[in-house]
Amino acid sequence: MRLEDIKKVGIAGAGTMGSGIAQIFARKGYEVVVTDISEEYLEKSKRLVQIFNESLIGEGIKTPEEASEAVSLISYSTSKQVLADSQLIIEAIVEKMDIKQVFWQEVEGIAAKDAYFATNTSGLSINGISKLVENKSRFIGMHFWNPPHIIPLVELIRADDTSDDTVAVLRELLTIIEKEPVVVQKDAPGFIGNRLQFAAFREALHIVNEGIADIEDVDRAMRYGPGFRYPIIGPLQTADLGGLDTFYYISSYLFNELSDMKEPPEMLKKLMDTKELGVKSKKGFYDYSDGKDEEAIKNRDKMLFNMLKYIHMKK
């Protein structure tokens, strides 16, 4: 199938990710259908799309008229049959391997023979998810990042049998919807983004656990040091600009000091045991009581929108 043949996108899963992905395609003029197992989930999805649109309007990125047009392009159903005429089907259902496998086995019997199949997983094996799919050449991982209506990155993850055509067409499609695609050349746990993210998370936990610095200063160090650079240049170009000889010499002694822990540390386990899970429970590394949870989310999104506007200005 050619890029220009993609007119309709089917989304399975009406949660935050599925709703965000639906809104992204609809605001670029694609017809979208969202499916899930209950009307309750679909109603929540409609509300999420409304919230996403309101935030874009509030930031001056979209007009009310553009948002209304996007909403008109999205339909909803509890039946998988509505995916039959979609040229691209994106699955964003629960992160359980067996459920995803059965879903794709069922959908392959419904979908057009040349439709592209994409799974939005944060880290499950793409080969594993596609195990029951017969035509694996059209199957790919397509990992959007949360919040999907703001974060530009989308990881395209090859399975062993994913065709070059599938990669090329969907990569170009992602640029059309103003995302920043990267290709993960093999099915590796964590892909690219989460491997980098959790390497930093592991070292941050280690620094706090060893008493090198407290939680607030670890976050400040990332925000105003490496994190200040990374929206502009990544870690490898940072090394180029700093001098690979310098980075080599530092690596020769610092690598040995960095954490290589294989299990989550006790401090993280204690937070799990006491149900201090972050914003969702109003306490984690930080306190989110008395409205500080909503304040944190709004502040995060505001700063992310500022960064998104900067990226668009660069282009």
Q: How would you portray this structure in words?
A:
With 315 residues, the chain is of the alpha/beta class. It is built from 13 helices and 8 strands. The chain has helices at residues 16-26, 39-58, 64-72, 97-108, 126-129, 164-176, 193-209, 215-224, 226-229, 235-242, 244-254, 266-273, 292-314, and strands spanning 8-12, 31-35, 74-77, 88-91, 116-119, 139-144, 153-158, 180-184. 27% of the residues are buried.
Taking the alpha carbons of the first and last residues, their distance comes to: 29 Å
What is the β-strand count?
8
Strand order of the largest sheet: 3-2-1-4-5-6-7-8
Strand fraction band?
A: 5-15%
How many DSSP H or I helices?
Answer: 13
Rg, Cα atoms, Å: 21 Å
Helix-strand pattern, N to C?
EHEHHEEHEHEEHEHHHHHHH
Q: Tell me about the biggest sheet?
A: 8 strands, mixed
Output the keywords:
single chain; 315 residues; alpha/beta; eight-stranded mixed beta sheet; 8 strands
List the helices and strands and how they pair.
Layout: E1 8-12, H1 16-26, E2 31-35, H2 39-58, H3 64-72, E3 74-77, E4 88-91, H4 97-108, E5 116-119, H5 126-129, E6 139-144, E7 153-158, H6 164-176, E8 180-184, H7 193-209, H8 215-224, H9 226-229, H10 235-242, H11 244-254, H12 266-273, H13 292-314
Parallel strand pairs: 1-2, 1-4, 2-3, 4-5, 5-6, 7-8
Antiparallel strand pairs: 6-7
Task: Summarize the entry for a quick read.
With 315 residues, this protein is of the alpha/beta class. 48% of the residues lie in helices and 12% in strands.
